[in-house]
Amino acid sequence: MPDLPDIPELIRLAVAARDRAYCPYSNHPVGAALVTDAGEVYTGCNVENAAYPLGSCAEQSAISAMVLGGGRAIRELVVVGPDDAPCTPCGGCRQRIREFAGPDTRVHACNERGVLLTVTLDELLPESFGPENLNQR
Ligand code: THU
């Protein structure tokens, strides 16, 4: 098992991802960095589109990168928004995270300087529906 990145390192990576965000419509750049149970790190940024509903969130991009890289389980996730208001995942991303995380998986809403808010997935999405409901996994 490689050394797990600590929260400050995940924040640095999420900030670097946020710097790549494509968000000309909202001007709300977001970066995400997740570490898997195997200790691998994946990052993502939001990518908007002139056809507004087609935009994707930073968390969604990081999860796609994780799946492409062979990861299947999120150990911890950091999200960095544009300012000091905690950028917590949208409803759709809560469900996307749910697919690859457990109830105790921690999600940290951060700014460049540190953690603003830490919540578990179960707090973000209580009584949730997931793969187990379909007898998967
Ligand atoms: N956004 C994210 O990427 N992650 C979040 O957690 C909340 C919102 C993006 C979507 C859109 O590009 C912009 O922020 C404004 O909603």
Automatic annotation (TrEMBL):
<dbReference type="InterPro" id="IPR006262">
    <property type="entry name" value="Cyt_deam_tetra"/>
</dbReference>
<keyword id="KW-0378">Hydrolase</keyword>
<comment type="similarity">
    <text>Belongs to the cytidine and deoxycytidylate deaminase family.</text>
</comment>
<dbReference type="InterPro" id="IPR050202">
    <property type="entry name" value="Cyt/Deoxycyt_deaminase"/>
</dbReference>
<comment type="function">
    <text>This enzyme scavenges exogenous and endogenous cytidine and 2'-deoxycytidine for UMP synthesis.</text>
</comment>
<dbReference type="InterPro" id="IPR016193">
    <property type="entry name" value="Cytidine_deaminase-like"/>
</dbReference>
<dbReference type="InterPro" id="IPR016192">
    <property type="entry name" value="APOBEC/CMP_deaminase_Zn-bd"/>
</dbReference>
<keyword id="KW-0862">Zinc</keyword>
<feature type="domain" description="CMP/dCMP-type deaminase">
    <location>
        <begin position="5"/>
        <end position="132"/>
    </location>
</feature>
<dbReference type="InterPro" id="IPR002125">
    <property type="entry name" value="CMP_dCMP_dom"/>
</dbReference>
<dbReference type="Pfam" id="PF00383">
    <property type="entry name" value="dCMP_cyt_deam_1"/>
</dbReference>
<dbReference type="GO" id="GO:0004126">
    <property type="term" value="F:cytidine deaminase activity"/>
</dbReference>
<keyword id="KW-0479">Metal-binding</keyword>
<protein>
    <recommendedName>
        <fullName>Cytidine deaminase</fullName>
        <ecNumber>3.5.4.5</ecNumber>
    </recommendedName>
</protein>
